[in-house]
## 1
Amino acid sequence: MSTSNFPGGAIVRHAAVWIAAIVVIIVMPYVFTSSSSVSMMSQMGVFIVFALSYNMLLGEAGMLSFGHAVYFGLGGFLTLHAIRAVNDDVWSFPLELMPLVGGLGGLAFGVIFGSVSTRRAGVTFAMITLGIGAMVEASANMFTNFFGGESGVSGNRVTEVTLLPFSYGPQIEVYYLIGAWTIVAALLMFLLTKTPLGRMANAVRDNPERAQFVGYSTTIARFIQFALSGFFAGIAGGLFAILFEIMTAPNVGLIQSGAVLLMTFIGGLGVFFGPIIGAVLVTYMQIALSGFSEGWILYFGLLFVLMVMYVPNGIAGVIVSHFAPWQAGLAHRFAVPYLLAIVPALLALAGLVTMIEMGYHLSLAYDPSRPIELFGMEITATSVAAWVVAVALFAAGLVALRWVAGRIRQRWGEVNQAMDAQRAKQ
Amino acid sequence: MSEREAALKGAVAGLILSSASALAVMLPTAAMAQEEPIRIGYIDPLSGPFANVGDAGLKQFRYLAEKMNAEGGILGRDIEIVGFDNKSSAQESLQILREAADEGIHYVTQGNGSHVAGALVDGVEKHNRRNPDNRIVFLNYAAVDPTLTNEKCSFWHFGFDANSAMKMKAITDYMADQDQIKKVFLINQDYSHGQFISQAGKDLLGEKRLDIEIVGDVLHPVGKVKDFSPYISRIKASGADTVITGNWGNDLSLLVKAGDQAGLDVDWYTYYAGGLGTPTSLGKAAAGKVKMITEWQENLAVRYEAPELRSMLEEFEQRYSGIEFYYLRVKTEMDMLKKAMEKAGSADPQAVAFALEDMSIETPFGTATMRAADHQLMQPLFMSTFGEDYLEYDSEGTGFGWKMDAEIPADETRVETSCEMKRPTRAS
Amino acid sequence: MIESVVFSLLNGVLYGMLLFMLASGLTLIFGMMGVLNFAHASFYMLGAYCAYSISQVLGFWGALVIAPIIVGLLGALIERVGLRNVHKHGHVAELLFTFGLVYVIDELVILVWGQLPVDYRIPEALDFTLFSLYGSDFPAYRGFILFMAVAMFVAIYLLLVRTRVGMIIRASLSHPDMVGALGHNVPRIFTFVFAFGTGLAGLAGVMAGNYFITEPGMAFAMGPIVFVVVVLGGLGSLGGALVASLIIGLVTTFAVGMNYSIADMLASAGIAFGQDSVLGINLSRFGPMLPYLLMVLILIFRPRGLMGSRES
């Protein structure tokens, strides 16, 4: 993303993308109609906002935080307390605007904690956020009036104080409310990246000395970015509170903070739509994969580690790296090697999944000799043959993948050369 | 971008794409059965730190469902237990509730964590109000927070374990008869469960035995303490002869072990010393000193001569080595559900919920009754001691087992309820 | 009163020394490689589980020797295959790599050993009472833990200061290019340091696994607190880690004994105030928060820690 201002064409293109996003949000519940999918998509919306707010830190400003759930969670708790106040007729405020309560709460705590943590960068900053996160989580047990102890705080989102003629009892109405907020928040965060502040954050990330030399205070840039990121995290927390009508102490905790880090990283740092992909994918995996395998955390961890090693720019990074060849009309040259890569990748994956599933079966199942169902086959984890086949599949897949990787590398070389040649002609 | 990186990226892109598609293929497709079974959603942690407990419960439910199906099921339909992993999270459990409703599951059961149970009671109430034609009944097999059958009570919730207040009443009744008890120390986890025990223990002991001195009352953080010796020093310094604790899991094992290592000589009155894995980690540290209040332990089947239960628990343990038949109440829950469905003549949630009210069932240890006022099961409770002189079954292969000290009849566990039950209007 | 202070001191020092056994490896790795190893507590857990399996065959003493070596070798493998590749993407990527490693190792432990606690016991030879004080027994195994921790500190210190290997290691920390130019293989030194550090974590696991409980949650319970120790002591400083371990050990142990609140203190001074507010909360309940509060404060006011020589 290097356009610093909007030429006419770019505006049209951007507008088209956002309108398409709105259409997708509107249409999705007609494609996936069950109430659990609607609920899952609502969660995706919440986590899109949360992951985008996290990207404001790590992606835009290079600030690695291990405590971002503090602002998400506190925003959620505040929103729910506000909803309870409306439930009890103490206060009157429309439900549609409730996430603003969370946002302002997140902003306030962002200002408080940001003023002490953003004076440092790098690993020191990361450790301070970890400490603050752990402290807030520990304090949840002491301030039970606010955090509600281990049973948390719950409220009823049907407050009868609304702007629009909806009750927000049915799942679908909440989905559209979250959808609307997701679009608004995402658009705001996108526009922020185009402002001088966004540029300043990038400069602080890429070369703090030079940014300082030009006359910016890196501390102030980091602080503003941090506080604003807390605002959007708070909005996400508010939406979360409306969706589930309950907030519990783990929502401010380290595990939740780790989850948003995973989402953002897997999706892709630095590319605006990266965290969106990550939020959708990880939310889906968390819900669907845990129903499929006892070892979902292992798959999750392996995916993350592999991505840190080989794809540090995330899924979005992979996509973006194909833009240039695409514009040069050379993208089709990857089709054959990529299709070739799928076969060994599937082989290796099948081998790995079989090994892991058999391992879990052996160590956890009551009767390990009972066959497990995998890929439509019945596999007996206690048989040596099954293990030999699985290991062979995995190894063969890896060897073949190495070979295909050579082909892909070669193809990239050719395409890069061809693009250089095109440029030279112009 | 270097070429090598590019190549790897391509490969990983392919891998991600293919794994995504592979996962999509592997995801369970909605099962279409010709003879629809009655499905019960089991919502408990199946991954993460508490997965072992959730897994053991699931096995017991599945085992009992299998037994029931072999005898013809309920109303000619099979029972199917569908396991859901809630990762100990309240929100995750609510998401599961929606999934369950989508899949046409009208009965859910859960037990680990009163905070999850509280969220589920609230969630089921709201769900049933917003979706009157797709209702859900929540059968709680282990969460003991008294508020679940008091302030938070719901028509759709049924509690099958004696709640914390009832257990504390039973413990203090028993203690009141033990003349050698003079000084009592309370140590509990710092959250509502522990706080409740600390308060109720003090109140009830004060009512029943004026001569007993409460020499200490400590709350410690849940699951965070690695070394309990500072607490042990305090207990020791207080001169206590008896300790009451509602701790569970590692917080209990570490506490008792630290006491043993420091040569602390007290009797421990506990709720959860028989819990999964606890006897293993307690071992000889607990022998002769640790007592627990429960509705069941395996040697009761010997004491009360219940051959059916004995063959059941032996078969269960043989099949699943390493875990035990921990909950009689799971069997009670399943049996009562069956009886209620047969009485109602259908599996309609509302009819079954009405049928469960005031329902009684005979167990080898006496009658268990589902009190209509608050949907709390009344059943006999037992005080037992861990040690070498057990009747027949040792715990988790440790060489130590539970020996019954006293029976507390169902009637004597009764605690008044503040529940104001809101019942739906009965469609006849 | 005096006996509770003595016991708190003893307990605090013991807990602190256990923390130090864990923290020493972490601070070494950071000092040498600049890598904050998030998965350090996971290697500690691996040590405990390996020791359990080995002790089934060779007994505790065999496990004490072999388990740390196995964990160290595993650490070397992970450094060689994973961490070294990530190195070029910078410290944040390294941090993220070890962060992902936590999920993988913790789950692999469940995969191999199951979800239940395993019965890893204190060896018979050390299962007796060392001495009694004010009627409380002090088990011999605790004495053994203290002894091992002190021995470990001395050994590492001598290794770094007195030997040629230690000199090269320290030099490659401050002047990696120069060390490389002198013909030493800096990446290999890194692998060695990572293996050594994780091996130390493994040793801590062997020692603590039977004293506490060997179960899949033990890494998660220990992870953040070890971080606190290392940051507090000053990243890379062995002496700092020792001091910080003792501070954290003593602070958490003494906080347990504080069975009164600020409001109680005010009340005893004749001021009835704040019984229902924050001031009314029992001080012992602040215990778990204190280490993190200390860490945040030190990072804000003295980011190089108590005894660190440089900022991270």
## 2
Amino acid sequence: MIKIENVSKEFEKTSENGKKIKFYADQNISFQVKDGEILGLLGPNGAGKTTLLRMLAGIMKPTSGEIFIHDKTYEENEIELKKNISFLSGNTRLYKDISCIELLKMCAGYYGMDKTIIDNRINEVIKRFDMESFKNQRIGNLSTGQTQRVGVARCILHNPHYYILDEATSGLDIISSQVILDFIKEERKKGKCIIYSTHYMEEAENICNRVVLLNKGEVIAIGTPQEIEKKTNTSNIRDAFFQLIGGKKNESE
Amino acid sequence: MNQNNIKITIFKELRGIIRDKKSLQKLILYPLMIPLVILLFGLLFDNVNESIYNVGINYSLTPEEKEIIKDLKNIKMKEYHNQEEIEKAYHDKKIEGYITKSHNKYTIYTDLTQNSGEIILSLANSYLESYNTILGSHYLTENGIDSTKVYQNIIIDYESLKEEDSNMMTSMIFSLVITYLIMIVVMVCVVVVTDSTSGEKERGTLETILTFPIRSSELVFGKYLATTILAFIVGLISYFLSIPTIYIGKELFKSYEEMVFITNLPSIILVILLIFLTALLSSGICMALSGKAKTYKEAQSSLQFISLLPMIPYFLNVMEVDNSIFDLIPIANCGSLLNDIVMNNVNIQSLLITILTTIIYTIGILIYISKQYKKEETLFS
């Protein structure tokens, strides 16, 4: 289980007149994600999704508040926690000069996987994501869909319990997107704990058990898509979102 | 620190650089410049030393003048009938300068902005002074006076306090080659560090790595060691490429014949140690500066000036400034000491100060970067 308690993240930026201004990317965010659940994180650009996910993945530290993964914080044991987490984001790119196999071997090394099982596990994920035909090609020569499949393959290689997925299907064609969505659903069935951030509200509505709506760094709603729609008296999560932010549809889009 | 993570990072960085065509080209080209510079300048200096300068004159040479010019070797006189003819020859580049004679006044015309002009002036001066002495001797002899009492009252001789090596220009080229050896080490660090830090940030792969169970100190140390290893290897290749090239140069070119370039075992060990120390310190400095850059280009431009640090002793040596002042300047002191080692001019005090300060600077910079790369503004700027 992932538990987030009053998490805030403060940044500093330089204003037009050269003065440094502090601002919150995320403010007092609290929610929980249970095992066997997909929690959707929805919100427009600048809502604070990526910062929140980076904090969840342990690559940024909250300014205040606590993140508990498996009842432990990153301060307690960062390395052990990271071994059980997988983070896939639009910002996490892959090395273009190495082949898929080389990348997977490198990742297995970083995750400290047992050398005797690495080759078998790599073969398993290659088969799982139909990468046989391009496994020895350099990543820079692959199509967007193939690259994303390699990205997902490297995420599941160490068989993590927690998935933090940021815009995992962004920019992909319908077939490549489906491969990833199927994989997410499959992992949920296995009891994995998944946080899934996306721009595509309909996609979230379809695969997420619950969603968290974020706007300007704050949580504006948490619940199942149906609960939120009922509460806002709308028929879909997109309309619910606009209802919650005050009906400024064009501005947020 | 997890050694496995450091090992994987080193291997990842080395593989990344070797597979990147542009970076690889640079790593190959830097050492190849050494034989190119040595051989090219050897050829150039030999040509300069063997050059014959054509000088026009508007008078006929006496047998005595012919004897003097014959001894000067590098100068050839061409007789012209009048001033117009001689000036035309100069404009047509048939002669590099000319001397006109009116009664007992000789005027030397030459382009002093050119190296050849200065050489012609010196040669012509020498010829005319010798001729003046001969004329004076003749006059004294004709009047029954011993000319040696006028012109040879004192005898001038000289002994060099240092072993004579060769002319200044070739010394400068050798010194430049040695300075370039250190520059290569620094330039490799610049290439590798910009790619492994700012390059990774810009490509978005740094964020991928940070999601792995690896401490930022392991990541930074891995990158630092990969840079040091590559810089050290390329520095060694450059050094071992320069040794045979210098010996071939000595065989091929007269200008290099008497040049000193020590390659005994102690000097080789010292040079290797200096290349290693330079690699250790330069990669640290490059990483510290690159951490402050937001983009690849910003990192490249902020690191450029470091490559010029080894040039400081070279330029100040040309200006004959005491080189003990370099002992405390990082990287520059390694360049200065390396020069002294291969020229067989090692000062133990400089050697110890350079080694000690480089180690202290390196430790300091490592502590700094290990803290710097823990900060979010460094990793996500």
